[in-house]
Design goal:
Organism: Goodea atripinnis
Subcellular location: Cytoplasm, Cytosol
Number of strands: 14
Keywords: Cytoplasm, Immunity, Innate immunity
Structural class: mainly beta
InterPro entries: FIIND_dom, NLRP_Inflammasome
Main location: cytoplasm
Shape: globular
Number of helices: 3
Strand order of the largest sheet: 1-3-4-7-11-10
Largest sheet: 6 strands, mixed
Helix content: under 10%
């Protein structure tokens, strides 16, 4: 797997040019893009829509990424997760939300779940994020996540102030 060169546009946004087919990992977010051809990829973190997950019996398990690229250039996404090995025994509770402006939300079953990432085929681009079944909380209340928490207070621009909380996986150095 190759590391993509990331040019941060603004906080939580990335842009890079994939030189051709292959798998490329963002050194900042841990996202992996499996490319079918050369293409420019733009992505940013966005807020989860209010109420959409709750009505589907899901809760966020990570950041929501809005991804833009030429159609068909990305065949798979590997979304980073912070689950422990014990929690992965119950991986049927972990899936990927695919949120579009037109169709709302669909839930994609993972192709594969490994210690660091959840892999899905990409039907078409929009917003993707990891979700847990709400029922998971009843079975896993004592399971922990691997990682480190980063807190960022946004510059004052309105009321109330916004605090961003970022959970980095255990295998990503803080310097990155």
């Amino acid at each position: 797997m190759e590391n993509a060169v990331i040019f941060l546009i603004t906080s939580g946004s990335g842009r890079f040019m994939c030189p051709g087919p292959g798998a490329f990992q963002c050194t900042f977010t841990g996202l992996v893009f499996v490319m079918t051809r050369e293409a420019e990829v733009l992505y940013r973190t966005v807020l989860w829509p209010d109420g959409l997950l709750e009505s589907a019996g899901k809760t966020p398990a990570g950041m929501l990424f809005n991804i833009k690229c030429s159609e068909g250039a990305i065949s798979q996404l590997h979304l980073p997760h912070c689950e422990t090995k014990e929690a992965l025994c119950f991986n049927r509770f972990l899936s990927v939300a695919h949120i579009t402006d037109d169709d709302g939300m669909s839930i994609l079953e993972p192709m594969r779940i490994i210690d660091t990432h959840v892999s899905v085929n990409v039907p078409h681009l929009s917003a993707f994020g990891l979700v847990w079944d709400t029922i998971r909380s009843f079975f896993h209340k004592k399971l922990t996540l691997k990682g480190q928490v980063l807190l960022f207070l946004r510059p004052p621009s309105g009321v109330p102030p916004i605090l961003d909380v970022l959970l980095l996986q255990e295998n990503i150095p803080l310097s990155e």
